Amino acid sequence: MQYEEKLPLHVLSGFLGSGKTTLLKSWLAQQNLNDIALLVNEFGEVGIDHHLLNEVAPDTVLLPSGCVCCQIRGELKTALLDLYERRARGLLPPFKQVILETTGLADPSPILSTLLHDRQLQHHFVQGTLVTLVDAEHGRMQADAQPEWLAQVSAADKLLISKRDRVSEDQAQQLHAWLQQLNPLAQLSDTQKALQTPQQLFQSQVIRGSREQRFRWLGACADEQFTLQPTAHSASHPATQTCVITLQQSLNWPAFAIWLSMLLHCHGSTVLRMKGILRVSDSSTPIVIHGVQHTLHPPVHLRDWPGELASSKLVFILRGLDADRLQQAFSRYMQALQE
């Protein structure tokens, strides 16, 4: 097989809440979906992002076992080879590229090492562009507190600053200059500009597979043990837990909003990411909510329930707050409403 016939695997990275799914959904809406295969990886046992992306990309594949940097390199290989086989058999459109949206806790190094060292994958796929989103509002704080953040930024071919409208122009310029120092090889822009030229989002000035790109990617993998054996989440993320709350009944939105605001006010620094799809009593359609630490973004109304999901589902990614404690707090809140 000639080099140019191989399919590029692009990676969309960025810490929890940086806006990966929002960017990807907007980008996909401007693409020929027959040209794209999409893989989504989420931390924990329950995924929500693939439901949201199904609205624009119905064939979205959810990788099943949590954080890509710990758990799924074998599953990533299996998923890629399965996609290629289904494409070859005509069961999928003849897509020209694969996009992998990683969990916000993923160190990209194991993904890169999987592609660089697996002969089966090398026969069909080639490294594409690694795009990392940096939250303009929370990036500096995340850099100090979360080791995964630096791994994501340093491995990037492109760095995109998200939520730039939430900071001053001076703060944005300071962040821009700082990111240039951290990763001078990366192209640096912001998400708004990236969506103005969508065909260039996963394009790089570095020739794909060139010595310069391979050197950068190999540098990111320098300390990686090249093995497909999975390890437990606790080995790499000892203080990180996922709390999943599922409800069949409708929620009282004003009361729930107060409870959630109090939770984030008291424990926001330990809630790395929060996302949910809710059935509320005063709306016939579901509401999507999401937050990062102390920040809760405005709710978004969907036209209908995505996929097979029909009940409220809340997913919290926690570092330093026990998931059982959060479950108990929510149960007490629900009991109080019924009294």
In brief:
With 339 residues, the protein is an alpha/beta fold. The chain has 13 helices and 13 strands.
Give the topology, please:
Layout: E1 7-14, H1 20-28, E2 36-41, H2 49-53, E3 61-63, H3 73-88, E4 97-101, H4 109-117, H5 119-124, E5 125-135, H6 139-145, H7 147-154, E6 158-162, H8 169-182, E7 187-190, H9 191-196, H10 211-220, H11 233-236, E8 240-247, H12 253-267, E9 271-278, E10 287-292, E11 295-296, E12 300-301, E13 312-319, H13 323-338
Parallel strand pairs: 1-4, 1-5, 2-3, 2-4, 5-6, 6-7
Antiparallel strand pairs: 8-13, 9-10, 9-13, 10-11, 10-12
Helix pairs in contact: 6-7
Structure in words:
Helix content is 37%, strand content 22%. The chain folds into two domains: 3-220, P-loop containing nucleotide triphosphate hydrolases (Rossmann fold), CATH 3.40.50.300; 239-338, CobW-like, C-terminal domain (Hypothetical Protein Yjia, Chain: A,domain 2), CATH 3.30.1220.10. The strands form two sheets. It has a seven-stranded parallel sheet, sandwiched between helices. Residues 65-72 and 206-238 have low confidence and may be disordered. It has 339 residues and is α/β, with parallel strands linked by helices. It has 13 helices and 13 strands.
What are the defining features of this structure?
7-stranded parallel sheet, about 350 residues, alpha/beta, about 35% helix, globular, Hypothetical Protein Yjia, Chain: A,domain 2, 13 strands, Rossmann fold
